[in-house]
Design goal:
Distance between the termini: 170 Å
Radius of gyration: 55 Å
Strand content: 15-25%
Number of strands: 12
Shape: elongated
Number of helices: 11
Helix content: 25-40%
Structural class: alpha/beta
């Protein structure tokens, strides 16, 4: 028997494996029950012994599970294997959660709106046009010695810039500093893209000596220029400046007032109740700049401003002005300036026919205001010589009284038809 036939016979004699159907008589053979594995025995009923535990099948090392490392409960991300009991959420906690969500929602909406507004401002509002106007918003603008293009260039704003990308106050201050001959400079904006410049030119009004030079000032006390020699045809302002004051062209001056009392105020007896010292507290509240503006307004109202050559304000209790270089008017304090200057104008301009002549020179004192509100003027001619008195014994008291009465009589001629105080006329 050859080798091939032997192998075929062996294959025929091999029984089929358990669980596999036999190729022979598969239709007629009944299904067989799977038998217990070899070596297993039935547990007898009533016996207390357990069958021997079968050894567990070991998996290959590749399929074996590695033991999990023990987690530390104190570390973040720790999860307990024990079932967690779900905590009951109270009604107050629910309300807090709802409020928190509502607040977050509102903040998100606001953030979106802000971002939208910023983007729209940066993208939509661009400078496209410039307009120069007067301070009262009229056109065409009076720019003084400057042109409109010079004013626009001085702002540093160009076409295409963001309309809201600059400070209007900063640009206004920049214009005032760079353009000395401007008393007013205001920069505003008008959507969607117009920049408006309102100006008022400065007019030379005063000259002031300071540190060996002469400052040319406007009526608003703005330094227009600095000259080494004294300028002509300007009102000289004698006033004090704070220590270290800026006097460069383009800066505004702030006048200073002495803190020490004057000899006149010191010599005044205590308790004296006169209109001059009764309102001393009110006068002290006014700044020298405010007093200067008031003084200029009164002089202009009564026709004395054009002839005024010097204004003296070195002491706020000894105000004075020089008219046409020939009459020095003493005003005293700033109380009742309206009445004092109106009285001085009545005498200087000879309104009533009994005042000063156009050739008179001297000092006119209208600072002596009586308790009833009236002014006792005194005029001292400058060209009249004063005789040197001879050494004679003091006159009796009655003679002094008579001399004072004669002096009052001389001054009464000037007040015969002079304007009266408003308070006196009412009485």
């Amino acid at each position: 028997m050859d080798r091939n036939q032997r192998s075929r016979n062996q294959k025929k004699s091999v029984p089929p494996r358990k669980g596999q159907p036999s190729h022979r008589n598969t239709k007629s053979a009944p299904p067989q029950r799977s038998s217990r594995p070899a070596g297993s025995q039935q547990r007898p009923k009533g016996s207390g012994q357990r069958p021997a535990k079968q050894p567990e099948r070991q998996l290959p090392k590749q399929q074996q599970k590695r033991p999990r490392p023990q987690q530390n409960p104190q570390k973040p991300g720790y999860r307990s294997s024990a079932p967690q009991v779900q905590r009951r959420v109270t009604r107050a906690e629910q309300l807090r959660i709802r409020r928190r969500k509502a607040i977050i929602g509102v903040l998100c909406v606001l953030a979106v709106l802000v971002v939208g507004i910023v983007l729209s401002i940066n993208l939509l509002f661009k400078v496209t046009d410039f307009r120069v106007e007067n301070a009262d918003r009229t056109t065409p603008a009076n720019t003084g010695i400057y042109t409109e293009q010079q004013l626009i260039d001085a702002t540093g704003i160009q076409v295409g810039d963001n309309l809201y990308g600059f400070s209007t106050k900063g640009k206004s201050d920049q214009l005032l500093a760079q353009m000395p001959y401007l008393d007013v400079a205001v920069v505003t904006r008008q959507a969607p893209g117009t920049v408006i410049i309102r100006v008022q030119p400065a007019v030379e009004g005063f000259k002031m000596e300071y540190s060996g030079s002469w400052l040319v000032l406007s009526e608003q006390l703005k330094v227009l220029r600095v000259e080494p020699a004294e300028p002509d045809n300007l009102v000289q302002l004698d006033a004090l400046l704070p220590e270290g004051a800026a006097t460069t062209p383009g800066s505004f001056l702030t006048l200073d007032a002495p803190s020490e009392p004057t000899a006149l105020a010191t010599a005044m007896p205590s308790g004296t109740a006169t209109p001059e010292n009764a309102d001393e507290a009110d006068t002290a509240q006014e700044t020298p700049n405010e007093v200067l503006n008031e003084l200029l307004g009164e002089l202009d109202q009564y026709g004395l401003l054009d002839g005024t050559t010097v204004l003296t304000m070195q002491n706020m209790t000894e105000l004075s002005f020089l008219y046409q270089g020939r009459v020095s008017v003493q005003l005293g304090t700033a109380n009742n300036l309206d009445y004092k200057i109106r009285f001085a104008a009545y005498i200087i301009l000879d309104t009533g026919g009994d005042g000063l002549a156009s050739s008179d020179r001297g000092t006119l004192d209208v600072s002596d205001q009586q308790t009833d509100g009236t002014i006792q003027p005194r005029f001292l001619p400058a060209e009249n010589p004063v005789a040197t008195p001879e050494p004679t014994p003091e006159p009796p008291a009655e003679d002094t009284t008579d001399a004072a009465a004669d002096a009052a009589t001389d001054g009464a001629d000037l007040t015969a038809d002079a304007p009266q105080d408003d308070t006196q006329s009412q009485e």
